[in-house]
Amino acid sequence: MQPNTETANCAPNLAISATLRDGFALSLRAEGRAPKTVVSYLEAVDLLLAYTTERGMPDVSHLTAEHLREFIAHLFDRGNKPATVSNRYRALKRFLGWLRDEGERTDNPLDRIKPPKIPAQVMPHYEADEVDALLRACPSTYSGVRDRAMILTLYDTGRFGHLELPSDSNGNASAY
Question: Are residues 95 and 68 in the same domain?
Answer without folding.
Answer: yes
